[in-house]
Amino acid sequence: MIPPIALSCGDPSGIGPELAVAAWSQLRDTCPFVWIGDPNHLPTGTPISRIIDLDQARDVVADSLPVLAQSFAAPAHPGQPDPSNAQGVIDAIKTAVSLVQTGSASAVCTAPIHKKALIDGAGFAYPGHTEFLAALAGTTRVVMMLASPQLRVVPATIHIALSEVPKQLTPDLLRDTIHITHQGLQQQFSIATPRIAIAGLNPHAGEGGAMGQEELDWIAPLVAELAPRYGLIGPLPGDTLFHAAARTRYDAAIAMYHDQALIPIKTLDFDNGVNVTLGLPFIRTSPDHGTAFDIAGQGIANPSSLIQALKLAWEMAQKKAAHA
């Protein structure tokens, strides 16, 4: 029997707690998960069952949200992040990772965190969630994929200024990104022979050098070298890579920078996008949104992305078990 998913609480002053309850109400019969956090941070009236072993989740999930209780330093006030709760947030993530590493959980799903609160309250030393998870897993290189039913896309560079992209986008970085993406599509999405499209860096993929040299100098030669092994096409102009007919020709697209990847998927399917971390030794998904402090506690947050993140984690866990 496949173990449940471990869902870390994220920042308790954001929309994470209320979304967890909304997700449980829709998924309890099909996608078992355990919420890791302080039960006092959940919306008032939430039916919960405190558990000490994830195997207990299946016995209670039909009638209550299974909670692996974690102590926090302070109450949670919606919309008001409290640095004193930073260590609790970090510990919840560590617990989720430990559970999946020992096989007690089938996957990790993470609710959004607030990096400033973690830095202020606990000296958090990582640029974000993904880098922290990589450190916990002992992995030096991971890749962020945004996935929805309509598109899977990977940015080769992520949270850097656009002016820094040509400096940090190197042949080694792109080669690693291609390898990890190909491996992830095979191992986590069960696509035996992935097809991967590579976007150009410059407008019109450089247009033969008229709009930039990177494609001629090294991107196109690298793609040609790796194409037989990884099923690559490209480099292709970013402005024609994401229309409906183009998307039928690949299983994932690798973009050169953050907005080149995220604008199309958020335009096509804003509510159902899921963040998948490739390159970890375990399955990790998260909703493709932040803490949304401005609407926290109002009961109006859309749970679609978290629901999709949990469903995708469960689907990936089932595929992994079937091929074990």
UniProtKB/TrEMBL annotation:
Binding site for a divalent metal cation: 159, 204, 258
EC class name: oxidoreductase
Protein keywords: Cobalt, Cytoplasm, Magnesium, Metal-binding, NAD, NADP, Oxidoreductase, Pyridoxine biosynthesis, Zinc
Cofactor or coenzyme needed: Zn(2+); Mg(2+); Co(2+)
Catalytic reactions of this protein: 4-(phosphooxy)-L-threonine + NAD(+) = 3-amino-2-oxopropyl phosphate + CO2 + NADH
Example of a GO MF term: 4-hydroxythreonine-4-phosphate dehydrogenase activity
Pfam families per UniProt: PdxA
Transmembrane region(s): none
Annotated InterPro entries: PdxA, PdxA_fam
Principal location listed in the UniProt entry: cytoplasm
Superkingdom, natural source: Bacteria
The record's free-text note on cofactor binding: Binds 1 divalent metal cation per subunit. Can use ions such as Zn(2+), Mg(2+) or Co(2+).
Gene3D superfamilies per the UniProt record, alphabetical: Isopropylmalate Dehydrogenase (3.40.718.10)
Signal peptide location: none
Keyword Cell cycle applies: no
EC numbers for this chain: 1.1.1.262
Pathway membership, UniProt: Cofactor biosynthesis; pyridoxine 5'-phosphate biosynthesis; pyridoxine 5'-phosphate from D-erythrose 4-phosphate: step 4/5
Subcellular location: Cytoplasm
Positions of substrate binding: 129-130, 266, 275, 284
Record-linked HAMAP family: PdxA
Task performed by this protein: Catalyzes the NAD(P)-dependent oxidation of 4-(phosphooxy)-L-threonine (HTP) into 2-amino-3-oxo-4-(phosphooxy)butyric acid which spontaneously decarboxylates to form 3-amino-2-oxopropyl phosphate (AHAP).
Similarity comment text for this entry: Belongs to the PdxA family.
Other remarks on this protein: The active site is located at the dimer interface.
Assembly and binders: Homodimer.
Protein name: 4-hydroxythreonine-4-phosphate dehydrogenase
Gene that this sequence comes from: pdxA
